[in-house]
Design goal:
Layout lengths: L1 E6 L6 H10 L4 E3 H11 L1 H11 L4 E2 L2 E2 L1 H10 L3 H23 L4 E5 L14 E6 L2 H12 L3 H8 L5 H7 L2 E4 L6 H14 L7
Parallel strand pairs: 1-5, 1-6, 2-5, 6-7
Antiparallel strand pairs: 3-4
Length: 199
């Protein structure tokens, strides 16, 4: 089994690329979605968040999202504390998920693949890349947000050029390059065991 990690900045189109992979029969693990579920369902995360924030961290069985958000934004170091609780559980969950799969290739969608060290959980890293101006335009339309709000979120992520250099494979999603063709080429290389670096 080959595990590929799909990453990319806000508005890059990584989720769309994952949808195209799923259409080809490739299972995709969505880190952000699973992390949200695990923050509610994992007894270990629940126990440690209560240790960190008190019993108010949960309202019954549900996560107290306003409290978590206030904690995260009150200090730049707080995110690291929450991540140290959540990320190891997500990594284990991904490993268990891959063990249940039978496909020769599986994918993980992770916006912060390099920032969180999740590149260590996959065999090949893939950056979905688009120019900044295009990513900003897409994100504003998709999220109904202001340019300032999107730029603030982008500032919290690793520079796209650095991601592009670190990734094994780069898929260009600038509206002119053929995504289907790039994905097909990548999968052929992976299946043939000839992939080194496709930039």
């Amino acid at each position: 089994m080959i595990r590929i990690g799909i990453t990319g900045g806000i508005g890059s189109g990584k989720t769309y690329v994952c949808q195209l992979l799923q259409k080809r029969g490739i299972p995709v693990y969505h880190c952000d979605d699973e992390a949200k579920l695990l923050m509610t369902q994992s007894p270990l995360i629940r126990e440690r968040l209560i240790q960190l924030l008190g019993t108010e961290a949960y309202m019954g069985q549900e996560l107290n999202k306003p409290l978590i958000a206030a904690y995260l934004f009150s200090d730049e170091h707080h995110a690291a504390k929450v991540n140290a609780i959540v990320h190891p559980v997500v990594k284990r969950d991904f490993q268990q998920w891959t063990e249940r799969q039978t496909a020769p290739i599986v994918a993980q969608e992770c916006a912060l693949l390099f920032e969180t060290g999740f590149q260590d959980t996959v065999d090949v890293t893939v950056e979905v890349y688009a120019p900044l101006s295009l990513r900003l335009q897409r994100a504003i339309q998709r999220d109904q947000a202001t340019p300032e709000q999107i730029q603030a979120r982008m500032a919290q992520q690793m520079d796209e050029e650095e991601k592009r250099q670190r990734a094994d494979i780069c898929i260009l999603n600038d509206g002119t390059a053929d995504l289907e063709e790039q994905i097909e080429h990548m999968l052929n290389e992976l299946n043939n065991g000839t992939t080194t670096t496709i930039k």
